[in-house]
């Protein structure tokens, strides 16, 4: 069950996908080490320019001859509303002051058309550079984009947080679907439901219900950190796992030191959902920023507007190792996180999985 | 792994515990059928009088010679505040009017001392009637209660929703701990954390983190409906499962028909947490009552005050099969629920589990 149609399709040895964490985590060292260790390394390219993407793909090809993949954010339509930006800035300016940042009033934010055009450029680079696998978060690309990627024999992976979203991914022609349980850290990949925070579904419930309703391979994501999580996911009907937090604390990951250290020192009770950092719901470790913004979070601008607004705050907080104002994305299993090499992580997962199989 | 120290301790054939759902679900037919089919049947006695408890225990002994257990609610201190009751009634009276119920102003509610005395009476009956297994929800009983139960060789099962709560259960002398993931239907068993709703932990994360931190056997609960969930739980390190919703829709369960029918017709997106029915957080299928009370739910009286206040509403709604004002407790896997006999459910779980083992 650990070697199956999914591992065959992706041409990987082990059914382990490194989650495409955006924002500097997926260094070429991390991605190549995952692929070289038998898993699937993924570039989290959501926030990257087409030029940066091309550069990293080329670099990766010198570091691994195994397959790797890339993840893109499907742009959702959004509006830039100046009044909302000013209200948000009124909440953010006291934080800026604490961090010795200048206050802000308005902000130059690219509009939806510009964001969409960048997405199309990103897709073009993926095709031109022959990346074998491309995954999507926050939605399903247009028929045109899908058909162009398919013409180039690129394997497509969608993201779903409900059965309905998984079914839509299959209908649209995705080859594989990553199913994100409520345990998952970072951004929620939901794209159908808006009244969202109150009915996130846990993996134990979500995976088998999705498996019963799609025929493409399902990858379980959320809270999976070791061989136990891998084997549990396989029992629930998944063909493999996608792991974020477990790779984030690895030596090779590009995550900020304060971010890694915080994950290594908190418990399963310490994460919560917030939309205050980016305008989209995401799970991170509770800190002053999340708590301070909590009562306002329903009224903040949407993604990517709010994300742009908080950029200066996140950046300076990271540079000062100030964990109270960074986005400390983490799934619900921080007690299982370790600082170790990718190779050791993957080897441990597979040897633990084999032990579980043997003792079954 | 399906026969282990937990099944040996409880003297059961299969590692399946029927969740002790309170409020009329756990008929003697249900409980005895579970025990007769190789699982552990449990009386949900939280709302039962000592006399009712004694009667059902005696009845069960005529229906099964296998072990069965009982669950009691550990009373938490509460205050009866008349102003809060009047505010709550102002919200509930328009609903009463819709259901042709008379409006209410004040209400006779037993105080904490009375509730606690009833609990001590319940414990006494459990001891006198030699029930071999007793589980607890909403807290850990006093040292005195625990030592009296242990003197009678009664096996004690605690309930936890976090690692901290599981550790407290072990320290207090519980023999086994049920660990309730965020997927679970009905009342949350939390008793340490109050700021609760925002950091519920999913089973995929919670089970292995608890297993790593206690040495007593862990039972997984929440969203488990079939052999896949059982095997996944075992992989995560649990020694067995406790299942509620899967038994609730069984032929033998005493749940209201409208309740069963609703579970059989909704999806994983349709449940949410509410404290509007009872004053404690619980997961149920979203209906008009939950939605209508949602903006007020943080201010409602605590358990059991709010529970007593909504009693007339829930009762008349149930009698009219009006699902909009009943507490439709359900876990997050309603798509996996079936109307079937207990025997068939348990046999299917075990044969599916064996198949998974074989194909591993």
* Total domain units of chain A: 1
CATH homologous superfamily descriptor of chain A = Aldolase class I
Percentage of residues assigned to helices of chain A: 40-55%
Number of helical segments with 4 or more residues of chain A? 15
Number of strands of chain A: 11
List the quaternary state of the chains. Answer: homodimer
Uncertain runs of chain A are: none
Structural class of chain A: alpha/beta
The coarse overall form of chain A would be globular
Major beta-sheet overview of chain A? 8 strands, parallel
CATH architecture of chain A: Alpha-Beta Barrel
The N- to C-terminal Cα distance of chain A equals: 14 Å
Radius of gyration of chain A: 19 Å
- CATH topology (fold) name of chain A: TIM Barrel
Mean pLDDT of chain A: 96
Return the CATH class of chain A.
Answer: Alpha Beta
Give me the side-by-side strand order of the main sheet of chain A. 1-9-8-6-5-4-3-2
Largest interface, with counts of residues having CB < 8 Å to the other chain, equals: A-B, 53 and 53 residues
Strand content of chain A: 5-15%
Order of helices and strands of chain A: HEHEHEHHEHEHEEHEHEHHEEHHHH
Protein name (chains A, B): Probable nitronate monooxygenase
Keywords (chains A, B): Detoxification, Flavoprotein, FMN, Monooxygenase, Oxidoreductase
Family (chains A, B): Belongs to the nitronate monooxygenase family. NMO class I subfamily.
Pfam families (chains A, B): NMO (PF03060)
């Amino acid at each position: 069950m650990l070697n199956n149609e999914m591992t065959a399709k992706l041409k990987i040895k082990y059914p382990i996908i490194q989650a495409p964490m955006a924002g500097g985590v997926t260094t070429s060292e991390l991605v190549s080490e995952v692929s070289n260790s038998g898993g699937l390394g993924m570039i989290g390219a959501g926030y990257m320019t087409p030029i940066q993407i091309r550069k990293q793909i080329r670099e990766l090809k010198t570091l691994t001859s195994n397959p790797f993949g890339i993840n893109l954010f499907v742009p959702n339509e959004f509006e830039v509303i100046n009044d909302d930006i000013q209200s948000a800035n009124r909440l953010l300016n006291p934080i800026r002051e604490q961090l010795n940042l200048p206050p802000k009033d308005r902000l130059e934010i690219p509009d939806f058309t510009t964001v969409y055009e960048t997405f199309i450029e990103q897709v073009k680079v993926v095709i031109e550079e022959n990346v074998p696998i491309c995954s999507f978060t926050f939605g399903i690309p247009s028929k045109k984009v899908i058909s162009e990627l398919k013409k180039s024999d690129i394997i497509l992976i969608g993201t779903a947080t409900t059965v309905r979203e998984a079914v839509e991914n299959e209908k649209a022609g995705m080859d594989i679907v990553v199913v994100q349980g409520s345990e998952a850290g970072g951004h929620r990949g939901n794209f159908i439901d808006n009244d969202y925070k109150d009915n996130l579904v846990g993996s134990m419930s979500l995976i088998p219900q999705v498996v019963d309703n799609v025929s493409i391979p399902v990858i379980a994501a959320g809270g999976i950190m070791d061989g136990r999580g891998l084997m549990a996911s396989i029992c629930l009907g998944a063909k493999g796992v996608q792991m974020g937090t477990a790779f984030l604390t690895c030596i090779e990951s590009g995550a900020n030191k304060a971010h890694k250290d915080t994950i290594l020192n908190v418990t399963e009770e310490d994460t919560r959902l917030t939309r205050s950092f980016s305008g989209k719901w995401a799970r991170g470790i509770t800190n002053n920023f999340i708590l301070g913004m909590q009562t306002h979070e329903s009224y903040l601008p949407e993604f990517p507007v709010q994300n742009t607004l908080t950029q200066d705050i996140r950046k300076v907080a990271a540079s000062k190792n100030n964990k109270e104002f960074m986005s400390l994305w983490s799934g619900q299993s921080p007690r299982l996180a370790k600082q170790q090499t990718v190779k050791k992580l993957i080897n441990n997962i597979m040897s633990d999985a084999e032990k579980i199989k043997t003792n079954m």
